[in-house]
Structure formats: C-alpha cells, structure tokens
Amino acid sequence: MIQTLLINFLQVLIGFSGGLAVGGGFVAFITVLGIIPRLIQLTKTEKLVKMYGGCVIIGLLIGTYFSFADIILNQSIIILILWGLFHGIFNGLLAAALTEVLNVFPIISKRIKMERHLLILLMAIVFGKIIGSLFQWTIFVK
Amino acid sequence: MTTIVYLRMKKNIDFSEMQEVQLKHIAYVSSTEPLLNKKLENTPIYRITKKDKNIVVMDSFLIIDHLTNIFEAIEIQLIGHSQTIIRVVPKKKPINIFFVSVVWIILFIGTAMTIMNFHYDVSMQEVQQKLHYLLTGEQNQYPLWIQIPYSLGLGIGTLLFFNHWFNKRFNEEPSPLEVEIYKYQQDLDNYLNQYENKLNDTNPTN
C-alpha cells in the first residue's frame, strides 16, 4: 500500500517535472523565434498580448490531451482541411522565423549583388516549401 | 568674427568613377552666409586614386582640419555621422538571368529538402495519421485532407512573416528581412569606419 503510494507519488513528480521542463522549453522556443510579436505587428493588436499567451497555453493543453487520450471526435473533412491549413501557416511562420534564413539572405544579396531581386528569391523559398511538402505527401511517402 | 558652419556628414556615397571629392559630395553645409556656403561646398577635399581601391573612409576630423586651414574665421560644428564611406562602384551591369536562376534553384531545392527533412524529423506523417483517426474515426495512411492544406498553409505563413507577395506588401512596416539586411549593412559600415579609416591606425591582420 505505502509502496504503491510512493511509486505513484514518484510518477507524479517525474511527470510534473518533465512537463515543466518541456513547457518552459516550448515557450522559450516560441519566444526566441518571435512569431507572436510578428503576428501582433501584422494585426496591430498590441493590447491582446495576454490573450495570445492564453491561446498558446490552451493549445498546449489540448495538444497534450489529444496525444494521450484515446478519443474519436467524428468530424467532417472540413475540419481536417482547416486544421491542416492553420497548422501549415503556423509552421510557415516558424520556419521563416528561423534565424538561419534571416541571416543567409543579407549575405546572399550582398555577395552576388542581387539586392533588387530579393523578392524573387524570397518566392523561391515560399514555393520550395509548398512544392517540397506537397511532393512529400503525395508522391514521396507512397 | 568667426562664422559658425554646420556640417552634416553623409553616411554613404557611391561614385561611379574615380574623381575629385568635393565637400558637397560628402556633407551638407549650412551657415548664415550663403556665399561662404557655396565656397565651402565646392572645396576639393580629396582625390580618389587607384591606390584607394574602391572604398575610402573620410573622417570628419580630417575635413575639419582641412577646412580650418583654408578658411579663416570659421568654426565648424559637426552634426550627425563622423565618417563618410565613399564607394567607387562601376556602373551597374544588367542583371544576369543565369545567376538569378541558379540562386533561385538553390534556394528552391534547398528549402524543399529542408522542409521534408523537418517533417521526417518530427514524424509528421504519423502524427497526422493519428490526428486523422482522432478527428474522423477512420484510419487513413495518407491523410491528404490535412496534408495538402497544410502544405499551402506553409507558403501563406512564410508570406505573412516576410510581409510580401512578390512586389506587393501587406502593410507599411519593414519586414524582418529588410531589418536584417539593414543590420548587416550597418555592421559592414561600422567595420569599414574602423578599419578603412586612415586615422585609426589599426589593422585586423596585424
């Protein structure tokens, strides 16, 4: 009896500390990439910072629930499409925010004197992402 | 009586050939006497020669020194930058389509591969399969209804981040990319101001 109690307590402790570490890491990651500030800037909604923080927390909790719970929601395809689209937008922001991309561009444009064609090159990245992803899901994995 | 002359150095100036540098090329001049302004503006400061290669840094100290020697009874007040970077750049050549295409393809394929590697790295296929089951209750090895909108969303997200669709921009603010390029240019200029300046007797190599 006491032994199971202790083991359970240990599990709670391990789970809780793991969650703390992962949660902290996740928030640090999001913060460093600056996706939220970027979205706030684009939508001019500085006042809603707290709300966006809440969104991230709720999203985290729901994601955790989905990955551990064994439930079925019986939703239609429309939900799938919306889900995929929003996931894609988020990942697009995420990948674009990776500082490597941002640091490579000034150097490329300077080295080969293409300051004026920067936008065309930017489109290469956009289409590369779309086509690469589509290629993977429709051809590559089959 | 001394006249106060205000001098604002330009940050950067591009010349298309080696030429004589006059004060008006590298600085804005203001004083209470229009005649003096004209004279000052046309004062030759420096002659760029082959020896200078293509970058010359003019330090404001040298200019003040030079001007106070020539003109008597002026007092120079410096506002703004303390150095001007002169670049000698030959006339812009027309764009090389070949180069642009090569870089375009590098970026395109590189990005495509990066995103595919990323998807494998995070086992996205499996997660999406599980999600498909969770949302619809059907097993599907290829949950394309999630994956295709996801792929399009990737592009939209990138566009949002950079705030550009080809030459069209969504709002007035500079995009992170433009800020980053500005920062890089700023760093280069700082470096030049330090190491190409004849007054700073330092050299990175010795």
From TrEMBL, chain A:
The keyword Transmembrane helix applies. InterPro entries: SpoVAB. Keywords: Membrane, Transmembrane, Transmembrane helix. Pfam families: SpoVAB. The chain crosses the membrane at residues 12-36, 48-66, 72-98, 118-139. This is Stage V sporulation protein AB. It comes from Oceanobacillus chungangensis. The lineage of its organism: Bacteria, Bacillati, Bacillota, Bacilli, Bacillales.
Automatic annotation (TrEMBL), chain B:
Gene3D superfamilies: eubacterium ventriosum atcc domain. The chain crosses the membrane at residues 97-120, 144-162. Keywords: Membrane, Transmembrane, Transmembrane helix. The keyword Endoplasmic reticulum does not apply. The keyword Transmembrane helix applies. Residues 4-89 form the Stage V sporulation protein AA domain. Coiled coil: none annotated. This is Stage V sporulation protein AA.
